[in-house]
Amino acid sequence: MRVLITGAAGFIGSHIAELLGERGHETVLLDNLLPKAHGPHATVGGVTIGDVRDADLLDTLLRGVEVVCHQAAVVGHGLDPSDAPDYALHNDFGTAVLLAAMYRAGTSRLVLASSMVVYGEGKYTCTTHGVVRPGPRRQSDLDSGRYEPPCPTCGAALAPGLVGEDAPIDPRSTYAATKAAQEFLASAWARQTGGGVWALRYHNVYGPRMPRDTPYAGVASLFRSALRRGEPPTVLEDGRQRRDFVHVRDVALANALAIEAAPPTGALTAANVCSGDPHTVGDLATELARACNGPAPKVLGGARPGDVRHVVADPARARALLGFNAQIQFAEGITEFATAPLRAPAAVS
Fold first, then answer.
1. Cα–Cα nearest to 18, from 276, 224, 207
2. What percent of the chain has pLDDT over 90?
3. Which of 71, 111, 253, 345 lies deepest, with the highest CB count within 10 Å?
4. Beta carbons of 326 and 276 less than 8 angstroms apart
5. Residue 313: enclosing H or E segment and its boundaries?
6. H-run or E-run covering 99
7. Strand partners, 67
8. pLDDT score of 347
């Protein structure tokens, strides 16, 4: 199968490209080597250096392409709301240009890199009111060390659970809003064209080739960068916020399975890509410090604006529809990650 991979030189895209090659697919690779992800002197063999917003270039690259695997994006929490135009320009306008080019080329299948951030908070249950959607946490509560969101109706404590793909979309950061918009654009394109979209909602991805020393990296990379400097990883809140940490090679596998699966027709189908084995952020910091033989984590309290408390994924749909089961266990993956190569420091402006 001939597959165009956007963001093919990136952290996740490069692993997908390697795996698809191993599975016998013909790949067309595109990346603009954005400095936020690649550092100032990155070069990658076999990749067309260009921008997903370049319609003429896409018209050339899409000839004969059966599936597009769209990984190109500005990712991460970023610096502050002044990042919004950059996120929207790359993530949403770029996706719109790509979808238009796919229509012109007659390419009807898309595998989209989405994210668990589209959910906002995860799933919560109140003993009185059942499943509820807590609102954004109040700054006064965070300042006082009250990190768990209360029931929005009665204020009682909530029990977190597994969030499924049918949960409401409730983005709470600029990045999250752009990922939700990508899904909406792709869904509209599918309905208009009869095409099919798998929206793979990645949970917290880690592994070799993560960019380091940049606020756009994931928490695992930030912890690893601190340990490399001989500093303790710093954990916000109380460290008990729960996430699903999934290894990048498992994410590549999920993409390969989506590319090879019978596509949805005229619709977008979302699927969580996760390990199915949740851990706290404190667990991650502790395990990584141990594997690096570094200083113990420091728990700082506080929280970044827009951060959510618990997002733990239900893996059932990806298992049922794609046959996806994560292969790399948490302890094994973190031990490897402790010494895995990371990307050189990237620019922040």
1. 207
2. 83
3. 71
4. yes
5. strand 312-313
6. helix 94-105
7. 3, 109
8. 53
What is the C-alpha to C-alpha distance for residues 238 and 226, in angstroms, rounded to an integer? 19
Our CA angle for 261, 264, 268, nearest 5°, is 120
Per-residue model confidence (pLDDT) at position 119 = 96
Which of these, 171, 68, 78, lies nearest to 116 by C-alpha position? 171
Give CA–CA dist 136/140, Å, rounded. Answer: 12
pLDDT of residue 81: 84
pLDDT digits (tens, 9 = 90+) for 28-54: 999 998 876 665 545 567 899 999 999
**Cβ atoms < 10 Å from Cβ of 57:** 17
pTM, two decimal places: 0.94
320: left (phi over 0), alpha (psi -120 to 50) or beta: alpha
CB contact set of 312 (below 8 Å; sequence gap of 6+): 122, 123, 160, 161, 162, 163, 242, 243, 244, 278
Contact predicate 91/178, CB 8 Å: yes
* 246-269 pLDDT per residue, tens: 999 999 999 999 999 988 899 999
In this prediction, residues 94-102 reach a mean pLDDT of: 98
Looking at residue 349, what is its pLDDT? 44
Report how far residue 231's alpha carbon sits from residue 225's, in angstroms, rounded to the nearest whole number.
9
Which region, left, alpha or beta, applies to residue 120 given φ > 0 means left and ψ of -120 to 50 means alpha? left
Please give the helix or strand (H or E) that residue 205 lies within, else none: strand 204-206
